[in-house]
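Hi Prof. W.,

I finally got the aldehyde dehydrogenase (NAD(+)) prediction working! I wasn't sure whether to trim anything, so I left the full sequence exactly as given:
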Amino acid sequence: MSPGYVYTSTSPLDVDDVVTSVELLPGSALVEAARRARAAQRSWAAVPAPVRGEVIGNIGRLVSANAEALARLVTREIGKPLAEARGEVQEIVDTCSFFLGEGRRLYGQTVPSEMADKQLFTFRNPVGVAAIITAGNFPVAVPSWYVVPALLCGNTVVWKPAEYSAASAQAFYDVFSSAGLPEGVLNIVFSDGEQTFEGLEGALAEGLVDKVGFTGSTEVGARIGELCGRHLQTPCLELGGKNPMVVTEDADLDLAVRGALFAGFGSAGQRCTSLGTAIVHESVHAEFLRRLVVATEDAVVGDPAEDVLFGPLLDAKFAAGFERSLAAIRPHHAVRGSSGTGRITRDNPRKGFVGAFERGLYFHPTIVDGVRPDDELFLQEAFGPIIGVTTYRDLDEAVELGNLPGYGLSCAIYTTDPAKAFRFRAGIGAGMVSVNNSTSGAEAHLPFGGNGRSGNGSRQSGVWVLDQFTRWQSMNWDYSGSLQKAQMDTVEIEADLDFRLR
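And this is what came out:
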């Protein structure tokens, strides 16, 4: 797309419903926003951290007051079931509630020196300007994971949201801006991917950006990581996932089916933490599959304003991407779960569908049994309502299969044996492990993030994200009145190390 292109965000419930239109700006707009952020940063950092925490508290109260309107906008623009959209908005409130208190707990440490009349200290300092780039599947919750702690720590922010969730992003920005943030502290830029990359490259070259946060695909994350590396920066990368769920021979199968249903099909399978492959012990495979198929066939799909398992896909480009994933189904696979596969149409109906599907991006839930370790469906993120199923014989094999795709975001194990749970935790490479729970689900005070193809080990949420948006500074204060040299002018205590009991 050329700079200045007007992007029209339409509802996936009805592709003729225009939610908003925004002008996609050139890369130079991101550079200019970084300059504004740079100009405002020192003054914002000079505001005492507890006072910055009060601003975060204001944001939380404003989000709470506008929660229903924001949730309904999210549902209209990206098709997320209203119950899930309300939960997403609550995630912002929870994040603000947590970091409101952290404004009074940006602790450093007082450290004893090895020399007399000398004291050592550590301090957390803001990194400076943070450039945040987010996807639109969680158009308001995930940005808050970056923006809230970044602002609390005294940084200023340039935020580039996804185009297809532009209305939700603008509403997020408007609420945050009403909470008392000074001019230039939070900046929003709408742009396409290539212009964003060009702008980020320019801003880094000018020394305007000190930290990059990115949520999106593994492929784009690798490009951003490479760019930041050239400027000796470590970005915060939260990328895709192919999240395994192991079902052991002693698992509660009904609970495992409920977990698989929500993890695989909640948000139409468009979460980075969505279930990729259910790895089921061979002794319970047939019964687990039978129960999962029945539950999937009985699940209500359709209008996200109703009580449904999932609604439409996010946008036409994701619908096209999911069609490509469905094309990876092979003759050795057994496909179950619905009255059809692919897009739900008059000629390809879904039993029990609620609402109007004619102009929406609705797809059948799909279970693919018999996936193999060398299948594309086993190795690659599908980002849609599809669950692969395979079998294993012993737990070591299950762990090996879970690690094989090379992602490392989330995983789950269903078992009644604590030993299996801990063996699985120790062997799996994921950053997040659930026991008898879904692969999806985050809490504001727990670290969120992945390894391998899912990220570079950075973590969001809780106190752990503070290390992304602050840098440690140490200070030594010598009040002895003389120059004391570390490791040389230390007091030595003599000991008789040859002493032995007789």
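DSSP finds 15 helices and 17 strands in the chain. Does that look reasonable to you?

Thanks,
D.
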